[in-house]
Amino acid sequence: MRCAGLVLIYKPPHASKLLYFSLKSTLSTMFTRFVLAAALVAVTLAADCQLLELADTGSFDAHFDNAVGGSYDASGNPSCHDGSANIQFPGEIKLVSGNLIVKDSANLVGDSKILLTLKKDSWLVGTVCDHGKSKNPLIPDSDCEIPFCETPSDLCTALGTSGTHTLGQLENQAGINSTIPLPEMSSAIKGILKGRWQVTIDIVVGGNTLASVKAPSNENWVNIGY
Questions:
Q1: Interstrand relation of 84-87 and 112-120 (parallel, antiparallel or unpaired)
Q2: Pairing state between β 127-130 and 133-134
Q3: Do 208 and 160 meet the contact criterion of CB atoms below 8 Å apart?
Q4: What is the structure's pLDDT at 35?
Q5: Contact (Cβ atoms closer than 8 angstroms) between residue 145 and residue 131
Q6: Over pLDDT 70: what percentage of the chain?
Q7: What are the residue boundaries of the structural domains of the chain, listed by start?
Q8: Which single residue of 34, 53, 114, 226 could bond 146 by disulfide (Cβ 3.0 to 4.6 Å)?
Q9: CA–CA gap between residue 223 and residue 193 (Å, rounded)
């Protein structure tokens, strides 16, 4: 209506309520989307917490290029602690991505083993295993050496076949089944196993080192035994 040259706009008494409920609905939708996005990120991070980068430690006939491994328990479930990889004995390490480059062909079945180097983030414990040999009088050499390729497997075949091979197991990626089984440890080492470690795996065939891989790839530490 018009009065004395002024324009008066009629606002229904319920308009402010409509604006309030509209704003409330918009904020509620935005909050819901934020919560869903945060949950999706958390699930994604949790699903990848078992992954860790690996690195070669020398020049040998088999070379792992941009390799990523994953820590799994004895049942094949991802194993994590505090949001990062957790290696278990018994358990598995799966080489989930990267390339394996092999110079010369060889037969690994029945003539190969893994020699462990284990160094704990503790000045009291320090290096327990050094290339398959115990450095602790309470730990037997058998805890520093793992049987490998006792029976044929995709990984053993790839390691013994010259050429470039694609590693991959997560989410049915194309590639080879690249699982390294980890055995039960003796009671002697179990008492000190839980903690943060640096791990080096030497794959030895007929007394000669075929490949050597360190986890993690840098000077950080990886959880074991949680």
A1: unpaired
A2: antiparallel
A3: no
A4: 39
A5: no
A6: 75
A7: 13-47, 50-224
A8: 114
A9: 10
